[in-house]
Design a protein that fits this description.
alpha/beta, two-stranded antiparallel ribbon, Rossmann fold, 34% helix, 7-stranded parallel sheet, 231 residues
Length: 231
């Protein structure tokens, strides 16, 4: 990549690499092997993320909620889309929701027919979720039908990624405990990358995006063998 840009702009490769380093330090891109990708805006703190792409998140959340069948055991990770998902569940749905997010659990406190299992551990304040050894122990006791995973980056070669090392490990462990993994991803997360890899894009069977998401963003995902649902 550096060589092509250097030739295009008539500067040295060292200049290109220096510029890439500076842009990465400013959080404007994520350097990956062989080049760079847009940095995901979803690595902002929980309170800030609440207002990012709120309309798209609501649509994605409602589509995801419709995938849950009565009697299922479903893992829902933390995040603003996940909170919207559980709020969209039908009031008469009988199911079990497993989460390591106090915010998700609290959103279900008044749902009469949902059993809530809250996994505890060390609170990762950036995302308001439990991480660490205690969380891993709780996760190891679960067999779930469905897992709704939040990520900050979706890319065929840079893979599914997020902004924290511990959180990536938790998301990976949860995927291993579920029969099906569904990624919830607004368009800003597609073709973007974050520092810590959760797993290959095929760790997910399905990715839910908003209806208006550009086809050029979703086509590589489908070509990799992952289903794309539009909300």
């Amino acid at each position: 990549m550096a060589g092509k840009l250097a030739a295009e702009f008539g500067v040295s490769e060292d200049t290109i690499r220096r510029d890439l380093r500076e842009l990465a330090a400013e959080g404007r891109l994520q350097r990956v092997h062989g080049g760079a990708l847009p940095a995901s805006p979803a690595i902002a703190p929980f309170g800030v993320r609440h207002d990012l792409e709120s309309a798209a998140k609501e649509k994605i959340a409602r589509r995801a909620a419709s995938m849950i069948a009565p009697g299922q055991t479903v893992i829902v990770v933390g995040g603003t889309t996940s909170v919207a998902l559980v709020k969209a569940l039908p009031p008469n749905l009988r199911a079990t929701i497993v989460t390591h997010s106090p915010s998700v659990a609290a959103a279900l406190a008044d749902h009469a027919t949902i059993e809530v299992i809250l996994i505890g551990g060390l609170l990762f304040k950036h995302s308001v979720v439990a991480v660490g050894a205690a969380a891993m122990e709780g996760i190891s006791r679960i067999h779930a039908d469905l897992y709704f995973m939040g990520v900050t980056g979706v890319h065929v070669t840079a893979r599914l990624s997020t902004g924290d090392f511990e959180e990536a490990a938790i998301k990976r462990a949860l995927a291993a405990r579920s029969a099906e993994t569904v990624v919830l991803a607004s368009s800003s997360k597609l073709n973007a990358a974050s520092p810590f890899v959760i797993g290959d894009i095929t760790l997910a069977q399905t990715i839910v995006v908003e209806a208006q998401c550009a086809a050029e963003l979703t086509r590589p995902i489908e070509e990799a063998g992952v289903s794309v649902l539009r909300a």
